[in-house]
């Protein structure tokens, strides 16, 4: 029985010389769904019905014109019915989600950890683009996210339920303290409550170590991009708000792939 099973496994591998393609296709299809979420959740509309339609002419898009990435290329970025241009962001988000699926498959192969991190990264992509568009992180995603991603102990060998709780408190508490301090200092809100709930969600998934890494890396990336934006925009309005959500998300994703390596490298540097 065991031998037969082994043989089946081999033939599977033969049929799929590069399982990464499979991961990419699945990832791109989920990315297509994330586009729907990014577009509809901030407007409080259903993400399941109606099916996809052109935002310009309202014509519904049949499935054969809704193939991730390929349809955009075949239609040359234009709606088949009204010739209205389709944002390049749709295929880019599909490709991005597909690439993360491949990277996860390479790092974790097909394990519960890979599935868990894929769901987590999908939620972070959705949150990031909504934050870019609307400068909000919807509670409709982050609050259920805190509960759902507390299941990390079930999927990740290194996590415990206690680690998740500690991560939620660190993420939520730390940012809340920073926000309160900033408010006392400047008498204006610097960081939104949405960021705090997002960081609590990241803490649920990655624990104390992960959430501290995320705050540190996210702030570093945010400061760097913030300075570049100030240098290269004529707009001298300093209240111009750069959403923090995408940077925190980038920090958390960096932690999944490179966190342990980077922490070891940093500890090695300072203890030399
Ligand atoms: Zn159209």
Number of domains: 2
What Rg is obtained from the alpha carbons, in whole angstroms? 21 Å
Percentage of residues in strands: under 5%
- In the predicted model, the low-confidence regions spanning at least 5 consecutive residues are 1-16
Rough outline: globular
* SSE string, helices as H and strands as E: HHHHHHHHHH
Number of strands: 0
- Quote the average pLDDT: 86
Distance between the termini: 54 Å
Category from helices, strands and their pairing:
mainly alpha
Helix content: 55-70%
- What compounds are bound to the protein? zinc ion
| Major beta-sheet overview | none
Number of helices: 10
What does this structure look like?
- Helices cover 70% and strands 0% of the residues.
- The chain contains 10 helices and no strands.
- The radius of gyration is 21 Å and the shape is globular.
- It starts with a helix and ends with a helix.
- Zinc ion is lined by residues 54, 56-57, 59, 79, 81-82, 84.
Topology:
Elements: H1 2-15, H2 19-40, H3 70-74, H4 89-108, H5 112-134, H6 139-148, H7 152-155, H8 161-186, H9 193-232, H10 245-270
This protein binds zinc ion.
Zinc ion binds next to loops.
């Amino acid at each position: 029985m065991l031998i037969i099973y082994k043989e089946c496994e081999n033939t599977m591998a033969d049929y799929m010389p590069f399982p990464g393609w499979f991961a990419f296709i699945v990832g791109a299809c989920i990315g297509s769904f994330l586009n729907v979420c990014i577009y509809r959740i901030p407007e409080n509309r259903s993400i399941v019905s109606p099916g996809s339609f052109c935002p310009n002419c309202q014509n519904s898009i049949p499935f054969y014109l809704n193939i991730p990435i390929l349809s955009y290329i075949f239609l040359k970025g234009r709606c088949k019915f009204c010739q209205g241009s389709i944002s390049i962001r749709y295929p880019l988000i599909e490709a991005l989600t597909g690439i993360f699926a491949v990277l996860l498959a390479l790092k974790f192969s097909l394990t519960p950890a890979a599935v868990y991190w894929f769901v987590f990264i999908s939620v972070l992509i959705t949150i990031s683009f909504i934050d870019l568009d609307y400068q909000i992180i919807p509670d409709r995603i982050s609050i259920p996210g805190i509960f759902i991603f507390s299941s990390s102990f079930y999927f990740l060998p290194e996590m415990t339920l206690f680690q998740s709780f500690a991560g939620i408190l660190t993420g939520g508490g730390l940012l809340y303290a920073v926000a309160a301090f900033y408010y006392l200092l400047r008498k204006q809100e610097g960081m939104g409550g949405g960021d705090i709930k997002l960081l609590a969600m990241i803490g649920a998934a990655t624990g104390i170590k992960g959430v501290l890494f995320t705050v540190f890396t996210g702030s570093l990336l945010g400061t760097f991009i913030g300075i570049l934006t100030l240098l290269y925009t004529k707009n001298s309005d300093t209240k111009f708000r750069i959403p923090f959500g995408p940077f925190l998300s980038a920090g958390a994703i960096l932690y999944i792939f490179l966190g342990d390596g980077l922490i070891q490298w940093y500890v090695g540097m300072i203890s030399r």
